[in-house]
Amino acid sequence: MTKSNSIDAQIYTDLKSLRLMKYKATGFDFLPPQPVNSLLTGRHVSKLRGRGLNFEEMRHYHIGDDIRTMDWKVTMRTGKPHVKIFSEERERNVYLLVDQRTNMFFGSTGKMKSVVAAEIAALIAWKVTDSTDRVGAIIYNDTVAVPIAPQRSANHVLKILNEIVIKNQQLKVGIAEDSQGNSFSKLFHQAKRLVKHDALVILITDGYGYNEQSEEQIKTLCKHNDVVLCHVTDPLEHNLAELDKMVLSDGEMQLAITGKQAQLKDRFAKDVTDTLDNFARVAKKYRIPVIKINTVQPADQQLRKALGA
Known about the structure:
The chain is an alpha/beta fold. Helix content is 36%, strand content 21%. The protein has helices at residues 15-20, 72-78, 113-130, 154-169, 180-194, 212-224, 235-239, 262-285, 299-306; strands at residues 53-60, 82-88, 93-99, 134-140, 145-151, 200-205, 226-233, 245-249, 254-258, 290-294. The strands form 3 sheets. The protein has a 6-stranded mixed β-sheet, sandwiched between helices. Strands 1-2 form a two-stranded antiparallel sheet. Helix 3 (113-130) runs antiparallel to helix 4 (154-169) and helix 5 runs parallel beside helix 6. It starts with 14 loop residues before the first helix and ends with a helix.
């Protein structure tokens, strides 16, 4: 069941909104070469391998052939120069790992983190399909991780976006049915089954529930694939400890927090800081580019800014 057409676009997304992201999916790319100001240039450029090459045939050397393609073993054995012929792979698998857990159902002045994550996923999915690559996904919440095998078609993108909308519109204020760590484990369990090698894996999350086991699973993904992290946070998460008073609401009920609840604010702020520090440490360790996404600025503008356009 999905919610009515009268939903607040800052709290929930819908298929129409994500479908229209197709027309904003321009001015950025995840494949090399990258613009000079892109987050993916410099020390990260070698991690983004492009589509790669497939071996086609071995043939005699022709004047003008690139000497770097010479096969010296065959040349020595036959006494005649031979070269290897390669063709560029026409398609590459890109996987979107989209977080729609209860912890993403949060926003202060802009949109919910869950909505922003959905928009980022839609923008990338449309861009990937337009670039003739295949896109797959794992959409996960507190209880399940739904895998969708990669394909290249507009209808397939709509299938992915529809699953995101379903999970997004199921979100509500309350206690998650499963722990954050367990939900991450389910995500990576599906990723191990779905993602093979030489793919681009884009994790869109706020990172809560990330632990040592998650790091091992990230390490495994990085061995044979390119991994990029889109880290979604809300400005309030960074500034909570400095606020003297605030009011939280789910649209029906309100909760006022003052300086008297300093311990609660400090603990929340520490959780955010620990999450940021953990991501920074792991990203640096495994050379994972981190695209920082906030809930205030338009998602398409943030992608263009991060990727140099």
